Amino acid sequence: MANFKKAYPNDTIVAYKFKSGGRGSFSGEKLLNVTLNDGYTLRIYKLRKSSGAHVNADEIKVKAFPFVYESRNMIDTAQRRDILNNKLTSMFPNHNVTVFIFNDSNWSRQSNNTKGITYFEKGYGSEVDVILS
User: Fold this and answer.
1) Which domain covers residue 64, as residue numbers?
2) Using one digit for the tens of pLDDT, what is the confidence trace for 11-46?
3) How many CB atoms are located within 10 Å of the residue 13 CB?
């Protein structure tokens, strides 16, 4: 991740390392997608920036919670991701909204220059990660 931060110092960069799931809806460019020797997948994205101001994690969580809770029983993670992305885009019209869904809690994220970020644990269905760029 450090090399990508150096190569793109002013851009929004997000890196995910995960075992299963990893269905994402993003606006930007996939910079890297590799399967590691330990069975994890590493994906790095350069997300498109928006005109929106920074939003703290609590505010994102409050606005996203009704939609995450309402969709918690959906089995089709791609459909859930798309629904959440559409709903959250309407809640944050000045931001590019990125939603990632993971089937389990065996994932991690590193990011640089986001305008807001939060996640919901598996107690709300699959794991949901929300990023504003």
Assistant:
1) 2-132
2) 999 999 999 777 888 888 999 999 999 999 999 999
3) 22
- Predicted local distance difference test score (pLDDT) of residue 97: 96
Q: Give me the helices (H) in the chain, please.
A: 2-7, 57-70, 77-91
Question: Domain tally for the chain?
Answer: 1
pTM: 0.90
Q: Enumerate long-range contacts of 88-95, CB under 8 Å, 24 or more apart.
A: 88/63, 88/64, 88/130, 91/63, 91/64, 92/52, 92/55, 92/60, 92/63, 92/116, 92/132, 94/50, 94/51, 94/52, 94/53, 95/50, 95/52, 95/55, 95/132, 95/133
